[in-house]
Amino acid sequence: MKSSILFYAFSVILAFRLFATEIHVSKHNPFYWAIDGETTLLIGGTVNDNLFQTEHLEEHLYALKAAGGNYVRSTLSSRDEGDVKPYSKNAEGLYDLESFNPEFWAKLEQFFEITARLGIIPQVEIWATYDFYWGDYGWASNPFNPALNNTYTAELSGLPELIDYPAQTTNNPFFKSVPALEDNGYLLGIQKAFVDKLLSISFKYDHILYCIDNETLAHHAWAEYWAKYLRSAAEKSNKHIYVTEMWDYWDPTNGEVDGLVKQHPDLGGWFAEHTNPDLHDDSKFKYSLSRPDLYSFLDVSNTNAQSGQVHYDATLWVRKAVEKRGQYMPITNVKVYGGDLNQVWAGTRKDGRDRFWRNIFSGHASVRFHRPTAGIGFDSMAQAHIRSARMLTDSVMLYEMAPANTLLTDREEDEAYCLANPDANEALLYFPEGGEVSLDMKPGTYSVHWLDISTATWGEIVMTELPGSVTAPTEAPWAVVVRRR
Length: 485
What we know:
By secondary structure, this protein is an alpha/beta fold. It is built from 11 helices and 20 strands. The strands form 6 sheets. Strands 14, 15, 16, 17, 18, 19 and 20 form a 7-stranded antiparallel beta sheet that branches. Strands 5-8-9-10 form a 4-stranded parallel beta sheet, covered by helices on one side. It has a 3-stranded antiparallel beta sheet with strand order 1-2-3, with no helix packed on it.
């Protein structure tokens, strides 16, 4: 009953909206996005990565909107049970790569339509990497597999019928078709048709962020080709789009920050057996950083395999690297790991919560809880923190703020984080597990407004004199707005 009322209420409130939601880099602060001209933090958490394939999609998106969310991820994946494939089958049960499945693309367009109506920004990953590797759900069910279609053979396409290795070991030849690599013009033509089909739908909208791959280990020439292809297509259609690539790295600094974990065999466990360290070239991120002509924002999702203080140090390093370059752009985290997967790299539910908040306090443009079980998705815990993040950032002019841990003294490692405006008369603080720090604001009387971020509940406003100490009410996660009166 409550969900029906909620659905109806938002339908009425948003009925006036045209499907004209636009995403732009903020004119006030290019580290952030603006939706319909209003600078905002992108916040999300959803149940799936290929969200357009999700049952009860509209209700799920309305619930996200009600919680303060405005950001979702959608790979063009079709490997999960029950997913619709992008191509139709012939009478013999083989896929025809010259015949698109209208149901798949109708689902995608419906997804774009609903998100545009609600003012929710989708970050779309064109090539769903793990659809192209081992497992019954991957290459073994992928229409591009020559064993499963009537369009080409293995010999004609240059693609294998069997892939029994993970993406971390060897690149599928699918990701080498571009002229700078294997120059497989036949396969590239079919790939272009797939991308053209996507753009024929997505170019009807102005609220979509484009990402070429999901955590890829492909050569940077692959991403460069598709970035140019997307930009050229947009120019011909008189569209302005935003494009990025998501590299499969855990350390974007390439060793410049101490303590960061790398995806090398010395990590042990699964990685010791299934990882080719030669593919994990962390310099690919620095390549993206050096090509603002290709990439208009940076996604650093895999940095969210780091934990604690070093996680913040890595995310802050990325922002400072952009500042040093002098051409600012948004930094997104479409996947924040940490859930119930029970693997070291994914981390715990607490890791997911803390990474979510650290990304905000390192001045990044977006955060989204990864889908279960590697993330907490949109469960009750995720909803509380999404709501709290929106409450906190709506209480200040966020785009006037920047990371300001330099204002904190008597601080232990990972104890507290700070954003502040340039005048140092207004600040936000985040305490992962309570604590007490000294806050070196301009001398004066300040209001201190605590937010219990586990329940999305404001406390009373108290007054204090600063510089001085700020102490969290309990040994639990808290955020606080500090404002000079």
